[in-house]
Amino acid sequence: MKRCLWVVPKGIFPVRDGARVANQALLKSVRPHFNELDIMLFNEEDSDELHMSLYNSEFNPTNVYFFKRASYPNKIKKLLFLAKSFLTTPSLPVTTGYFHTDKQKHEVTQVLTHRKYDVIVFDGLHPFTTFMDLPEFKNIPVVYRAHNVEGDLWSTAASKTKNMIIQKLLLWQGRKMTDLEMSLARRAQKVWCIAEEDLKRFKSLQNGDDKNLVLIPVGLDFKKSIHTGHNSKSDKINLLFLGKMDWAPNKDGLKWFLEEVWPKVDTSRFELQIVGSGDSSWGTELFKAPGINFIGFAKDLEAIYSNCDFSIIPIRYGSGTRIKVIESISKGVPIVSTDMGVQGSGLNDYFKAETADEWIKVINSLDKKRGQEIAALAFTQLEVMYSPASIGNKAINSIKI
Asked: What is the enzyme's main class (predicted)?
């Protein structure tokens, strides 16, 4: 009997950011290969259990374990908690403190004592810290599904700040994150890398050893439909930025775009929709600029995509695959992006812009008809690469259970 425990760092539903899209897509594609599937969620929201019907319909799980992790909306309390986390476990990154409390370790121990697993899949890094020192976990085969190279995100963020103290803190935490990630990679039977660039980076971190590394991209359904642009009565071209507002690469890229590019875009011809969950308070004033419609979290992304003409991705750093790239193309929406923005997707057909001047020039010259021609080429290319069934089969065939 093949019995799997699938561990994710937060609730999957509602699917409102790239990480959740990735969680849902791979879990759904591999589900048929397991006789029994338990899902373990670490979430700071009490409402996640309200989505139980979605977990049942999407994954048909044997059990779903909802473990609430600490949440501190108050910044002072959050800083005190992170300080305590450092003092308690100085060898671990402070952000993992939410996942290895005594309460959570006890809850996981209870599960591992009563349920015997053939494999545990960590669909994200942080929850590994709950398990890593538990005797019951010692001999269970492990797979790590890496959404990006976590340590590199910290070091890149450090390179973008001019404050020397913050820079040193970020680099210090980045080294701890890399140590943690390599600890899991060494323990894992396989590391499922979401992008080719990440696989190469893991190989370099493992001193050239790639025996346990496998490229498992995100699989999404591509529906053959003709996208004719937004349904608004306005003749304006509707641009879309979609992404988690407090994920550092998204915040950096969008803030840069709104400060350096948008003021020089012809807003008599263009509108920008900004959609995404997470803390967006950093952009309150920027979102008031002419031509911008800040939506925030949107439950119905189908409606959002059907009402846009182009998706913009001004990402300047980060790793992993931009889920929004695959998702946009799967819905027939053409993309304007930096090279970094489409990294890991394999996409060749898009409107490329790097500098502010290039972005201004490209956007002001956008044409709906040409956009749809590019979107059709991109659709044909990515549809073959991201078939959920083939990706699910590749993932399962890479492990012995």
From this structure: transferase
